[in-house]
Amino acid sequence: MHTALILGYSAFDLGLFNDKDIRIDIIKKAIGRDLEGLAEEGVTWLVFTGTLGFEYWVLQVAKEMKEEYGFQLATIFDFETHGSNWNEANQAKLSEFKQVDFVKYAYPQYEHKGQLRDYQKFLLENTDSCYLFYDEEKETKLRYFYQMMKNQADYVTRRLTFEDLNEIVENFSEK
Which InterPro entries match (predicted)? Predict the structure, then answer.
């Protein structure tokens, strides 16, 4: 296992709109722990899709850990127009996804829904695993992608769940 796709809840899905929210620090602590585990399992490439929220927080933590753990970072956007209508603050975050080791776009622009299905299929076929922040009890549009992963033979999914975050919070409280 060498390549991990990074997917998870958006900041909007989680209701996290302030970058200084303490919950983001807790999520980042979990991300750091999990990225160490992925590195120990031989993951060298982290592949992003450019979604704000969990992916962005993983990108931030991975950049801090890059030198020590040797991570290579890639962003494969669905469309060249991805994020073009975002506000200035989110455009700045988007630019961080474009300043990684490898950047590509699947399509110039959206034309039909089959593109998204093919894009997701491409990502699954070209990664060995996924680091996913998703809980089946808190469904979002990630549900379909998660089902595709579960149906893909020999595809490893490492999930971060709300239960994992609660454990970190409890450990925070004990200190």
Answer: YspA
pLDDT(83) > 80: yes
Place of tokens 């992608």: 145
Residues 6+ apart with CB under 8 A from 134: 7, 8, 9, 140, 142, 146, 159, 160, 161
Structure confidence by residue, pLDDT tens digits, 63-72: 999 999 999 9
Please give the helix or strand (H or E) that residue 31 lies within, else none: helix 22-40
Domain ranges of the chain: 3-174
Q: Identify which of 160, 162, 120, 169 has the alpha carbon closest to the alpha carbon of residue 8.
A: 160
- How many other β-carbons are positioned within 10 Å of the β-carbon of residue 43? 24
- Nearest partner of 48 among 62, 59, 35, judged by Cα: 59
Give the span between the Cα atoms of 161 and 16, in whole angstroms.
16
3-state secondary structure of 4: strand
- pTM for the full predicted model: 0.95
CATH number of the domain located at residue range(s) 3-174 in this protein: 3.40.50.450
What is the phi/psi pair of residue 4, to 5°? -120, 125
DSSP assignments along 52-103, one per residue: TBHHHHHHHHHHHHHHHHT-EEEEEEEETTTTTT--HHHHHHHHHHTSSSEE
Contact 77, 106 (CB under 8 A): yes
